[in-house]
Design brief:
It is built from 17 helices and twelve strands. With 395 residues, the chain is α/β, with parallel strands linked by helices. β5 and β6 form a beta hairpin. Bound molecules: zinc ion.
């Protein structure tokens, strides 16, 4: 009974625990496997004849924060028929492993958390190099592509490139893959490896306003609608407002400039999100008293965001967007004309975005995780290890 309790506690099924030594700096668990009929790997005859024993020390998951070792008295059988000597079978470890399978499992599970590799290494009592050697095996790319594919770069600063690319399933938010760099030839190499039916599986390709991604979509995703990510294209008009605000600010006397800096948040927030009367009054004051261009740009920004977030029919939104572009192509404000030109260039993709609920908003939570991961790890030099960590965090 007691022996069974210990076995359950240690989660060591199918082994015989001969002894446990709880030493000052480590725990040693002495184990053996029961004698069992074995099939000779050479001639196929069965045998229970034992030839000799060999003691193997295997690192296991720490118990009570102490390094823990299984002292495995490994049996060697001998074939009665051909004399072949061979080790008994076991599920505990691979042939030459110095760690239990479950310790490796423990390490992998710990790596799913937003902690540094050195923390995992301490907790699991394995060297950091074991972890960095294990990680590349876990950086396994998905072989399938989702119906809604979101593509977005992020500043990973790993490997040889500043920016890495995240491919995310726009419906489940699952990370499909992480690519080392966003250069066109690299992306081509990547996507051309997928069979045609996989590429055709993608019905929506969600992207920021970057020409390379559009080219990739045209080349590989022939069946997909390209959807401009609304977070990205809305940023253009917000930037226009901010640029004008900065220009206004520069012309102000020093003391007033300080006050005016508060206007940034007010001008870039949605008007409907301003809660207090004080904020609303301050915004009106800024819009009335400083610059005609700023007033116009602010109004157009609000108009555009209204269209994006509207629950109207696609036809209505689409019509409003066309009018917005047409109007602003002729705007007296240069920044708005530039913005409208960009939108005109991406007209189809932006219109598509008004029709479907997909955006790269899903990647926002993803980006936050990456930031924390980079912070706890003090950056990651190896791309493969970085990729493995991201995939473990997000799958
Ligand atoms: Zn044999």
């Amino acid at each position: 009974m007691q022996a069974n309790c210990i076995k359950n506690l240690l989660d060591l099924k199918d082994v015989i625990v001969k002894n446990i030594k709880n030493l000052k700096d480590k725990v040693e668990i002495y184990i053996e496997l029961p004698v069992k009929e074995h099939i000779c790997p050479s001639c196929g005859c069965s045998t229970t004849n034992i030839h000799d024993y060999y003691t193997q020390t295997i690192k296991d998951i720490p118990i009570y924060f102490k390094p823990t070792y299984l002292i495995f008295r490994k049996r060697r059988y001998v074939c009665k028929h051909c004399g072949k000597k061979f080790f008994e079978q076991n599920d505990l470890l691979a042939r030459y492993a110095r760690r239990t399978t479950r310790l490796t499992g423990f390490v992998i599970n710990e790596l799913r958390n937003l902690v540094s590799q050195s923390d995992v290494s301490k907790k699991a009592n394995v060297s950091p190099s074991v972890i960095s050697k294990t990680l590349p095996y876990l950086a396994v790319s998905n072989s399938t592509l989702p119906r809604v594919l979101c593509i977005d770069e992020f500043k990973g600063n790993t490997g040889n490139y500043k920016y890495q690319v995240a491919l995310i399933n726009g419906e489940t938010y699952e990370v499909v893959d992480i690519l080392e760099c966003r250069q066109k030839h690299f992306l081509c190499e990547y996507f051309k490896k997928f069979p045609k039916e996989q590429l055709d599986n993608v019905q929506y390709f969600v992207t920021d306003l970057w020409e390379t991604y559009k080219d990739i979509a045209f080349t590989y995703f022939r069946k997909a609608k390209i959807v401009a990510d609304h977070f990205h294209f809305a940023r253009y008009v917000c930037n226009a407002v901010n640029d004008i605000r900065i220009a206004v600010q520069k012309k102000l006397p020093k003391d007033e400039r300080k006050y005016f800096k508060h206007s940034r948040k007010l001008l870039l927030s949605r008007q409907c999100n301003l809660k207090s009367d004080e904020q609303k009054d301050e915004l009106s004051y800024i819009l009335i008293n400083y610059s005609e261009d700023l007033r116009i740009a602010y109004r157009e920004k609000e108009e555009l965001l209204d269209i994006i977030h509207s629950t109207d029919s696609f036809e209505t939104k689409s019509k409003s967007f066309s009018e917005w572009v047409k109007r602003n192509l002729e705007s007296p404000v240069e920044k708005l004309r530039d913005c409208a030109k960009t939108y005109q260039h991406w007209y189809t993709e932006i219109k598509n975005s008004l029709e479907v609920p997909y955006s790269n908003g899903a990647t926002e939570g993803f980006n936050n995780k990456i930031k924390v991961l980079k912070r706890v790890s003090f950056g990651m030099r190896s791309f493969k290890n970085f990729k493995a960590r991201i995939l473990l965090l997000n799958r």
